Amino acid sequence: MKPELISLEQDSSHNIYEIYNNFKAEEPFYSGACLAGLDTPEAWEIRLYLLGHSKDGRRGVAQGLAGIRTEKAYELRVNLLEDAPESVARSLAGDDSEIAWQLRQKIKERLDEAGVANGLAESIANIDTPRAWELRNELLKDRQAISSILEGLAGVNSEAAWKIRADYVNEYPAFVAGSLIGLSGQRVEAMRKQIASLDEQAVLMSYTGSNEPKAWELRDKFLNINPFFVGTSLAGIDNKKANETRERLINMLTLNTGEAYNKVRKGILQGLHSNYIFESLKTAA
Which residue segment(s) compose the domain that 111 sits in? Predict the structure, then answer.
């Protein structure tokens, strides 16, 4: 089912929930995951629907608890550990609290399960402490977790983080770009230039949440080529230009089918409000 065209207004909170509700049945994981940071009655109503929908729905709800540090949210994380350990881990992105580390320890007991190492690597985004580096260094031994270790470097500006970026930029340019979210300065710009020489589209991931002119130049250039990257990069931006771009993406749904349609839809959801990586940059323990 394709949703009707939606016009986003400057005050778009009601339309945001309309979009989540339009997509929740056919895209349960992303609909739940992209509720990150939303602790509202409307968001919890959608979570309740998804919890009863499917395992994908429960996985999405778990990941979409990112940025929410209430007793209710932590209790739900514990309840979802059995079904979705990797998604519960991602919901802890940026959370350096003791309760978060207790949950990571429980999840680590299932490290041999698919996706768990990746979730743990991403759970320590924007955490640059000895405890976080002990976990990163352990996970670096797992080749399958490298892309997630890079994503989990968002907001991390230490020398150790820059060494990992340099080691993997040629192999994983898009993930290194994502690791630059929340950072600025000459070093970031130099890395963006290196990434652009490998994959110009990937550079856009480093501008997630950015209102800089260069970010908009890239969004305009790649809107029809990579709507997933463009949509994702809108996370955290609430202004007229961002809403107009979201509206253009929504209108693109009528022109696409199959996998192309799915990529547009996922991009819309990823950048509709927030996501777990972006939430890691917004909250402090």
Answer: 13-282
Cα-based distances in Å from 183 to 200, 207, 219, 234: 19, 10, 19, 16
The DSSP-derived string for 7-61 is: PPPSS-HHHHHHHHHHHTTT-HHHHHHTTTT--SHHHHHHHHHHHTT-HHHHHHH
How many domains are contained in the chain?
Answer: 1
Q: Taking 50 as the threshold, does the pLDDT of residue 8 lie above it?
A: no
CA distance 125 to 118: 12
Query: What is the C-alpha separation between 123 and 68, in angstroms, rounded?
Result: 14
Does residue 215 sit within a domain? yes
In a domain, 7, yes or no: no
Mean residue pLDDT across the chain: 93
Within-domain flag for 48: yes
Token pair listed for 74: 């932590």
- Mean pLDDT over 268-276 rounds to 94
The rounded distance, in Å, linking the Cα atoms of 46 and 199 is 37
Q: What pLDDT is stored for residue 274 in this prediction?
A: 92
| pTM higher than 0.70 | yes
Weakest mean pLDDT among 46-50, 100-104, 281-285? 281-285
Give the amino acid at 285: A
Q: What is the pLDDT of residue 1?
A: 30
In a domain, 117, yes or no: yes
